[in-house]
Amino acid sequence: MIPASFRDCKAWQKEWLPLSTTSDEACKLYDAILTQYVTWRNDQSLGGIEGCIAAMQAADPNFVMGHVISTGLELVGTGSSVLLNERLASALQRTVELAKAQDITPRERLHVRAMEQFSKGCLPKACDLWDEILLEHPTDMLALKFAHDGFFYLGYQTQMRDSVARVLPHWKPHMPLYSYLKGIYSFGLLETHFYDQAEKIAKEGLALTPDDAWSVHSVAHVHEMRAEVDKGLKFMETTEKDWEGCDMLACHNYWHWALYFIEKGDYEAALKIYDSQVFHRCVSSGAMLDTVDACSMLYRLQMEGVSVKDRWRELQQVTQPHMEDHVLLFNDLHFLMTSLGAEDQASTQRLLESLQQLVEAPRENHQHQLARVVGLPMCQALLEYDQGNFSKAVELLQPIRYRFREIGGSDAQRDVFSQLLIHAAMKSDKKQHQRLARCLLVERDAARPNSSLTDRLIQRANALHC
Is a pLDDT exceeding 80 seen at residue 347? Predict the structure, then answer.
């Protein structure tokens, strides 16, 4: 039985967010799913998100917003494409047909349209529709979270911040999920480099809800971007008990913890977190966030000179089924790291050739359009670097380095590609590239003072080029 604290038909109506169903149980289960999405936690006492979805669909099989949230969460998870997954394509079609056949609210119709656009890869259009919902319904948390994720995938950092800022005055402390707005807003602030304000807002959120894993994650980012390793390590250690149960984000928080150790040069400690937490959780969940974190972590360690070959082969078992998904370029690049690391030439070729085919006929898919000028050159640079063609990798990456943001993700996540350019430039036999490496390191030192990793790279560059 779903707890009475979740909102029924009347409660949603009272908040000016009516749901087109007569089933109180379906409304409450919708709320339970939304709550787990926002809190990054599968609540097993409720049956987790999957259990709640099944129960909601049983309570009202024709509940349009029930289909929107269930299908939307799978789409936004980016682990599957309607082009390859017939079940997902069928679920999307069912939602669209139900919306056409029923007298639902304009807000609900916009949700259906946004989901359709996202499924086609039209992420900017989907975000525009979610923003349109928020103009009239600023307390629609599903629209807010879907927009936040969409902007994240697009690398739209300012929009990610402002979409939350403009709705904040409409939220009141008594409203369900109010405290979680702090962490969501904080993340937009830090991605636009307002680090002091981001930390302040995130800690306000933690004061209200200590187990808010996203606020913890935001503070972890602040320490990462400032190279405050000791502060970061202490913060993660003292808060671990609060967020380790947030199964949808815990892996990512452990990844941040490991980054501090990589920054310090304590590779054994980083590998311990990888083996005990990141890889374990990645295999268990199959979630794309967990998977790309595992890929990125091994690649960073490999660039630092750490041997991780056996781990690449293990991780390849997770990424191999996704080589032709092509939902996000960000994901593709991380899958490619793994096939290269595992020396799986067939998977590497499959990823690159299938992506090239989509680039030739991208239609309205934003990611496939972007692949021609950003995605494929970045993929090719990974391949060239792996083959020891360092100067070619530099030539591919240098002209687009200010466009890395367009593949999405956070500044911290994309830093792996900035590091790749530095390593390639250092190893290139061209003097111009070696000078570029030193310039890039000066830039890095200015943006992130007191970084041990930057200091190590500067020493390595000096030793190579003296």
Answer: yes
